[in-house]
Amino acid sequence: MKDLQEAIGYTFRDPALLTEAMTHSSYAHEQHKNMKYNERLEFLGDAVLSIVVSDYIYKHCPNLPEGELTKLRASLVCEKSLFDFAKQIDLGSYLRLSNGERRNGGAKRPSIVSDAFEALIAAIYLDGGMKPAEKHILRFVVPEIEQHKNRSFKDYKTKLQEIIQKNPGEKLEYHLVSATGPDHDKHFKVEVCLNSNVIGKGGGRSKKEAEQQAAREALELMGY
């Protein structure tokens, strides 16, 4: 398990927790009736994952309404995403599976590997507390959130532009209203205008983000 600890950048004070996280029920039942396996850890890891992701997107996606926050969180904690995260550290290769489960491809089965990823989160949390667990989770989650932001932003501006272009002669412009705060924590406010009339306002940690949120508000006001 030394290689796995190097892969996740965390050294366990209690290696037994890591072993338990990597032990599938099939292995425990094949070896010893009283051997611990990872289902209880999976339960706890799911809760830790949810609170860390919820806290991060609440703080870093201030302009997303509740419904979009819920959808974003769901996309980040679903089996597919967890399986993708697990593959980044080759987690399946460290799993302790029964001979039959291993022969049947258990080390590459999304349900088994994603459950182990949640169990690993719980093991880190129990061993070192919330900070290292949060660090571990955000390593995988933050890049996905940034990609989501970029996709959303592109959609808002592109969609608004496409709608306006249907009416020749209409002029769409974005105006920076303010930029406040220190350099490392700027907040920008932008207005989007149609023929000099403000049709949307937005704010964000970058001018680009503020423009996209202004476009989103304009689309909502236009009924899109």
UniProtKB/TrEMBL annotation:
GO terms for cellular component: cytoplasm. Its EC number is 3.1.26.3. PROSITE patterns: DS_RBD, RNASE_3_1, RNASE_3_2. It comes from the Bacteria. The active site is at residues 46, 118. Residues 1-129 form the RNase III domain. Transmembrane segments: none annotated. The keyword Nuclease applies. Residues 155-224 form the DRBM domain. InterPro entries: dsRBD_dom (IPR014720), RNase_III (IPR011907), RNase_III_dom (IPR000999), RNase_III_sf (IPR036389). CDD domains: DSRM_RNAse_III_family, RIBOc. One of its GO terms (molecular function) is identical protein binding. It is found in: Cytoplasm. Its cofactor is Mg(2+). It catalyses: Endonucleolytic cleavage to 5'-phosphomonoester. Belongs to the ribonuclease III family. Homodimer. This is Ribonuclease 3.
